[in-house]
Specification:
359 residues, alpha+beta, six-stranded antiparallel β-sheet, 8 helices, elongated
Length: 359
């Protein structure tokens, strides 16, 4: 059962968190409109689409992105204000332990963490679809595939290679498709260029060579142009990481398995997204322990000093998450470990600060 102290702290903390989020969202929207207004006017974006399709769907996306930071600031603000008013001294002097005082903060962190799980895995993928489509139509230039040397395994027998692919015009350069049977190559298709016909749903091979191998016997076909079904579509060649923002957790898992089978170089990036969705809610609890332990002692600098130190720690946490992600995508660090390292490191800091907190 929640006591009066629990209800008081939870009410104050959640009010401070949602108020901070609301104020920051208003400020961000104002600056965002001023930056994108010329594009909206030039491309004649409808007013109702700007308000309801873009910015209404932008709010949960923004809340989820910076939720850790603003909840941490709310914890520090409330705790330091209670310390400045000597409320914490009165609470501890009445016989309540510091761990008992910490309980309503942890309950609030768990509540926000559950909301974060719902937002990240269910709601935000749904609202991101119209938001990203709106950006594609009225703000950002169409997506351009910048990847080179694309290797993809279509199925268990077929592999393809494209040196580069222009997804705007559906043209690939230096194309090769190899078909294997029992670890031996039985067919190889090469072409200087390939172009997708969106009407017939076939590929046009330009300056092509087809080799069919049957033991010691080989059949060779060469030509300038030939249309055929190659077993894949242009979208299979697009390394478009933004689309994972529109996937629920179940869809993301299926997508990762598909990309792993294709031999995609971006699998670690997708795995990092998966593990962040799973473990990032723990960051709310870790940062809460740090915030309460750090701000519960009354100091000469007061709330301002606590906020400055807290914001520094929060940005250090975010920067550490980015650095470990780079070690995973560009190196050999396992994606799950790269996500857990910042959480574990700051949990150790939190335990240390908890031991130093006033009792």
């Amino acid at each position: 059962m929640l006591k009066k102290l629990d209800k008081y702290i939870i009410k104050q903390l959640l009010a401070a968190f949602f108020l901070a989020i609301a104020l920051i969202i208003l400020i961000v929207i104002v600056f965002d409109i001023s930056e994108k207004l010329d594009d909206f006017l030039e491309r004649k974006a409808p007013i109702n689409a700007i308000i309801f399709t873009y910015y209404l769907n932008f709010i949960p996306y923004f809340v989820n992105m910076f939720g850790h930071l603003f909840f941490f600031i709310a914890v520090i603000f409330l705790t330091s204000r209670m310390a400045a008013r000597t409320e914490i001294i009165a609470i501890l002097s009445s016989g309540i332990s510091f761990h008992r005082f910490l309980r309503p903060f942890i309950i609030s962190a768990i509540f926000i963490g559950i909301i974060n799980i719902y937002l990240t895995n269910i709601l935000i993928p749904q609202v991101n679809k119209p938001r990203i489509e709106f950006e594609r139509l009225y703000w950002r230039n169409p997506y351009k595939n910048q990847s080179n040397n694309i290797h993809i395994q279509i199925d268990k027998k077929n592999q393809i290679y494209v040196q580069s692919f222009d997804n705007i015009h559906n043209i690939g350069i230096r194309f090769t498709k190899e078909t294997f049977d029992k670890n031996s190559i039985v067919k190889k298709i090469s072409a200087r260029n390939i172009k997708y016909d969106t009407i017939e749903h076939k590929w046009m091979l330009i300056d092509y060579t087809i080799r069919e191998i049957n033991g010691l016997h080989e059949e060779l076909e060469k030509g300038e142009n030939k249309k055929m079904d190659l077993g894949f579509v242009p979208n299979d060649l697009n390394i478009y990481t933004t689309k994972i923002e529109t996937m629920t957790f179940t869809e993301l898992n299926k997508f990762i398995e598909k990309e792993r089978f294709k031999g995609s170089k971006e699998v670690n990036t997708y795995l990092i997204e998966k593990y962040q969705r799973l473990f990032n809610p723990l960051a709310f609890i870790v940062l809460t322990i740090i915030g309460v332990s750090l701000s519960s002692r009354k100091t000469r600098g007061g709330t301002g000093m606590h906020l400055a130190l807290g914001i520094t720690l929060a940005f250090t946490f975010i920067m550490m998450m980015k650095i470990t992600s780079v070690f995973s995508t560009k190196g050999n660090l396992h994606p799950m470990i790269s996500v857990l390292i910042p959480i574990i490191a700051f949990f150790i800091i939190g335990i240390y600060l908890l031991k130093k907190a006033p009792k």
